[in-house]
Amino acid sequence: MKGIYSALLVSFNEDGSLNENGLRQIVRHNIDVCGIDGLYVGGSTGENFMLPTEMKKRIFSIVADENKGQVNLIAQVGSLNIEESVELAKYATDLGYNALSAVTPFYYKFTFDEIKHYYNTIINSVDNKMIIYSIPFLTGVNMSVDQFGELFENEKIIGVKFTAGDFYLLERLRKAYPDKLIFSGFDEMMLPAVVLGVDGAIGSTFNVNGKKSKELFYLAKEGKIAEALNLQHEVNDFITDVLDNGLYQTLKGLLSLQGVDAGYCKRPMKSQTEEMKKGTEKIYRKYFA
Ligand code: MN9
Q1: DSSP code per residue over 209-243
Q2: Could you tell me the domains of the chain?
Q3: Nearest-CA neighbor of 16 among 271, 265, 251, 246?
Q4: Binding site membership of 48 for ligand 1 (Cβ less than 6 Å)
Q5: Is the CB of 169 under 6 A from ligand 1?
Q6: Which of 22, 78, 203, 217 could bridge to 261 as Cys pair (CB 3.0-4.6 Å)?
Q7: Which residue among the candidates 129, 161, 180, 266 is catalytic per the annotation?
Q8: Cα-to-centroid distance, 245 and ligand 1 (Å)
Q9: Which atom of ligand 1 is the closest one to the Cα of 205?
Q10: Peptide bond into 268 cis (omega under 30)
């Protein structure tokens, strides 16, 4: 399960319906062009929290079908509707997903006991493994080293996608749970995360920049820190430009310029404006032409 996973982008039509053919093209691009080790499906980058259950299922199914067993697949099934999470967990498990993931339940200030109940309920309903999706800057949910440990007591909870800049916490988790999988979630902080011993990385920008990010990851893993840092600087010039122009809109725009039908975003998220399009073209010329 280790390695570089794209947090998969999803293509939508202008009316918010799923662009199935576009989604297939994004999967192919990730595998054939970016050469990633796996796909993380239904995460933030997949605009998942704005989608109805049936569409989430359709996405899991299309990705599995297009992947044809080529790379590892992780299905993010977390939701504030726990019955939906269980339903999605069963569905993705039946499709052969290698692992599940679930965002920490957000919006309400859930107690740790409630969070623990959520994870155990989802993963104990299926024959599969769970990777906690921790992203405190969007969820507001912060867990301590001991609380992660309490979740990890369930052997089916095998790891965490750590999307945070708290490297002290990351180091403490690495030391405390050497057998659990830790995935770095911020692409722009991959190098320090690898130095602290993460097993992989899951990120949105890999849909476009997967090759270089993968090179960075394995250079850092081999201890070639100076070379890896040069690449991180390069990668971060790109990420900074993308973030300034609008993250998902720009990534989709860059794919479209490469002939991948990455489509529109799902409302309430707006799609590329004319100004963003110009910005995207500039980024394309700077890094890809
Ligand atoms: O899955 C992604 N997180 C979000 C991880 O999109 C919220 C990251 O890959 C970031 O998009 C990326 C840019 O900040 O590091």
Answers
A1: HHHHHHHHHHHHHTT-HHHHHHHHHHHHHHHHHHH
A2: 3-224 (3.20.20.70)
A3: 265
A4: no
A5: no
A6: 22
A7: 161
A8: 14
A9: 9
A10: yes
76 lines ligand 1 (CB under 6 A): no
| pLDDT of 159 | 98
Is the beta carbon of 203 within 6 A of some atom in ligand 1?
Answer: yes
Distance between CA atoms of residues 247 and 239, nearest Å: 9
What's the confidence (pLDDT) of residue 71? 98
Q: Is the pTM of this model over 0.85?
A: yes
Q: Is 91 annotated in the active site?
A: no
Question: Does residue 188 have a known ligand-binding role?
Answer: yes
The span from the CA of 180 to the CA of 134, in Å, is 14
- Residue 204, annotated as binding a ligand: yes
Q: Is 202 in the pocket of ligand 1 (CB under 6 A)?
A: yes
Q: Integer distance in angstroms from the first to the last C-alpha of the chain?
A: 33
pLDDT for 285: 98
What is the predicted pLDDT for the residue at 238? 98
Distances from the Cα of 193 to the Cα of 13, 27, 78, 95, angstroms:
36, 26, 24, 31
Name which residue sits closest to atom 6 of ligand 1, judged by CA. Answer: 45
Distance CA(54)–CA(265), nearest Å, equals 18
- CA 141 to centroid of ligand 1, rounded, Å: 17
Cα–Cα distance measured from residue 162 to residue 70, given in angstroms and rounded to the nearest whole number: 25
> Average pLDDT by consecutive 10-residue portion of the chain (289 residues)?
98 98 98 98 98 98 98 98 98 98 98 98 98 98 98 98 98 98 98 98 98 98 98 98 98 98 98 97 96
Q: Tell me, in angstroms, the distance from the centre of ligand 1 to residue 164's CA.
A: 10
Which neighbouring-strand residues pair with 18?
12
